[in-house]
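Please, structure for the following, as tokens.
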Amino acid sequence: MISTVEKVLFLKSIDLFREIPGEDLARVAQIAEEVDFEPRETVMTEGEIGDSMYLIVDGRVQVSKTGRVIAELGEGECVGEMAILDSEPRSATVRALGAMRALKLEREDLYDLMSEKMHITHGIIKVLTRRLRQTLSSTA
């Protein structure tokens, strides 16, 4: 079990939350649920409606779109962050490559915090914008 202090330190290491003050991260840590996945277990499925995101604490995941592997992600990275901002279907399937531990953030809980703390909203927008730019530059 990860303590709240450990969650805060972990969150501080993630791009999404790097610039957010510690007291605000403590509130994020309180709503983050620790979840474990077995090897090859599906974390999310392309096309399903998502209402949460996952921050990878330990382990790696494989991201695939229409059956084609497009990325592997590991510790300190997040998946499902677009579901926090919209109610659109998941854009990819994510599977644990081995045993994996993550922190799960539900949309409704995070929205409540985002409405109070603009730092959190700005962090999410910043990461998504950077990913979009990287995607656009790699397809150009």
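The mean pLDDT is 88. The first helix runs from residue 4 to 12.
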